[in-house]
Amino acid sequence: MRITKLELFHISIPFKKPYKLSKKYGTQTHAHAVIFKIHTDAGIVGLGESDTLNPFTAETPSSVMVVTRDIIAPLLINQDPTQIAMLEAALDQGVSGNLSARGAVNMALYDIVGKAYNVPVYLLLGGLKHTQLPLLGPIGSGTPDEDADAIEALYEEGYRTVMIKMGALPIADEIKRMISAKQRFGDRMKLIPDANQGWETSEALEFVNGVKDHAPDLLEQPIRSWDIDGLKRIRNRMACPLAVDESLMTAQDAATIIRERAADVFSIKVSKNGGLTKSVQIAQTAGLFDIKCLMNSMLEFGITQAASLHLGLTLPNLVDMGHAYMSVLRMADDITDFHRNISHAVVTPPEGSGLGIALNEDKLKKYTQDYIKIQ
Length: 375
Ligand SMILES: [Mg+2]
Hints:
Blueprint: E1 3-20, E2 27-40, E3 45-50, H1 61-72, H2 84-94, H3 99-117, H4 121-124, E4 133-134, E5 137-139, H5 144-157, E6 161-165, H6 171-185, E7 190-194, H7 201-210, E8 219-220, H8 228-237, E9 242-244, H9 251-260, E10 265-268, H10 276-288, E11 292-295, H11 302-312, E12 342-343, E13 346-347, H12 361-367, E14 368-374
Parallel strand pairs: 5-6, 6-7, 8-9, 9-10, 10-11
Antiparallel strand pairs: 1-2, 1-14, 2-3, 4-13, 12-13
Helix pairs in contact: 5-6, 6-7, 7-8, 9-10
C-alpha cells in the first residue's frame, strides 16, 4: 500500500456557550481544528486531527497546513502507511517540532492500519486494559455559586470528577472557589483545579497554603510551562498530587520532569503530544516511575478524541478519576459520530476498525473555512 495524497480541512465550530479559561488563553467561543485525510492507493482513507490553541501550542491551523504541505507531506507521499515506525523516524529526522501536525498524521496512519487489517486501534496498541472509563466534566471560570450550579449539573448527569478552570481571577477569589467547591462537593466529586499557567509561583504557593484544609484531588499546571523549579517548589508544599499539561509536550519533557521529580501525574493529549506513538512512549515511561496518566483533551473533535480513547483504554497507569472524553459534548456540533461512545458520563470502546469513527462529509463541508490538497 502507498500514500497517494493528503487533504487538509481547517474547521471551526462554536461552543454551546463560551468557555472561560485562564488569563493566558482568555474566553474561547469557537474550537478550531485541522482535519486530515490521508489517502492510499488501496482506497483506504486515514483520518487525523490537529488541535492547536496558540499560545498553548506554538502551532496554529494555518501553520499546520503550511508545514504539512511543505515539510511533512513530501516525506509521506508514495510511502507505505503501515510501516508507522519507519515513517515516524523519517519525520523525526526531517521535521522539527510541529507536534500537533505530527499527531494528526500519526493517528491517521493508525486508522489506515486498523482499517487495512480490520482491527480497532486499541488492538494495535496491545489490547484493552479497561472496558470503560469514567468521564471528567470541565467547568469554566465563575463565582462560587456559578461553579456550584455547574458542578451540580454535572453530578446530575453522572459525572464524579470535575475539572475547574482557574487562573483568570485574583488568587484570593480562586481560593474561595476551591474551598466552596470542596465544602459543597468534596464528599461526592473529585475536584481538579487547572490554572492553565495562569499563576505566578508566589500565587500558586498562596493557593496551596490557602486550601491546605480543603485540598483538591489533583492540581494541574498552576504556573508557566518552562518553570520546572517552580513546579518542584509547589509539589513539595502541596497536600495533593500535581499534574503537568503544558509542561509536557515532548517525550524529552517527560524525561526532564521525571528526572526533576516535578510532577505526580502526566496529562496526556494525543494531539499535543504528537500522536499515538509518542503518547504511548510518554505514558509507558511514566508508568516505570509510578507516575499516573490523566487522559486529557484540547478543544477536540471526534477524531482526536477517538485516538485518545483507544490509547487510554490500553493503559495500566491511569489516575483513578474521570478522563476528558467529553470534548464534543461542549461543541454546538461535531464532524464525527464519536458521541455515540458516551453514555451517562462513561465512555466505552469504539466499534469498528481503525479509529472506529465515521466522518460526516456534509458537516465537514459546512464547517470548513480553508482547504488544501497535497499530492
Ligand atoms: Mg490542562
